[in-house]
Amino acid sequence: MIGATHYVVLSLILFCLGLVGVMMRRNFITVLMSLELMFNAVNLNLIAFSFRLSDLAGQVLAIFVITVAAAEAAIGLGLIIALVRLKDTVDLDQADEMRG
Amino acid sequence: MEFLIANFVEILFYCLAVLTVAGGIGVLLFKSPVHAALSLLFTFVLVGALFLLRHAELLAAVQVLVYGGGIMVLFLFVIMLVNVKSLAAEQVFMSGIAPLAVVGGVLLGVLIAFGLVFGVLASGHGDGTALRSVDGEEIGNTEAIGAILYTKYLVPFEVVSVVLLVAMIGAIVFGRRSAALETGGGGGGP
Prior knowledge:
The complex is a heterodimer.
Chain A: H1 4-24, H2 28-52, H3 57-87
Helix pairs in contact in A: 1-2, 2-3
Chain B: H1 2-6, H2 8-29, H3 33-53, H4 57-82, H5 98-121, E1 133-134, E2 137-138, H6 141-149, H7 154-175, H8 179-183
Antiparallel strand pairs in B: 1-2
Helix pairs in contact in B: 2-3, 3-4
């Protein structure tokens, strides 16, 4: 019997992988990919609890999360293009103009 | 063989889960962004399969179409566009991360403990029937989501369309070849 707990644990692992990617990698493209991984972990949780609670609200929320993830990907990739034009790099440490 | 049939869903879940985590680790470890992107695509499709196991058929299709189709093409397109080979090798950020990692780990642990407790205590067993019925009538997952999305969740639905519009405009503005970006100066006009 696969319960919500299994999904929560899998989602935790995926989310932590994404978090580690965001914190450790300096490549903007890989950081965005890790972000998508975290979005997927959240969706997995929503779907699991939607099933567990027999409530469609979780699936509807997951649709909204996917929409926002798509918007985020479009913006983030636009930022990558702008960064490459400006500095010819995808290294996040190079984008430090705003540092105080 | 009988063990396989009796525990089919469990075995399927564990296989998918292990492969999903392997894909996620691949995203982190592959040096080449193209390999990382393909590993991510692998993960997306497997997460879609995991959705199927939870009777979220529409979400599984959306996952494969939007993530596997749309977002992945966007990623690969950008990777081709920036020509990663010509860029300098990446320095993996390590120093000074230990205290942050401890705090983050504790916070995540609390969060997950909360989630696990909620998962165990959550009322209702769930067999997926409610996920494909409207007013007690079984019609299918997609129709049920449509029925609830265009009635109860109409306002969030409209709001999210505005979010998409804003993101579209933002992406165009960022991607535009502007004079200020070209010269590297902030003050220059067109």
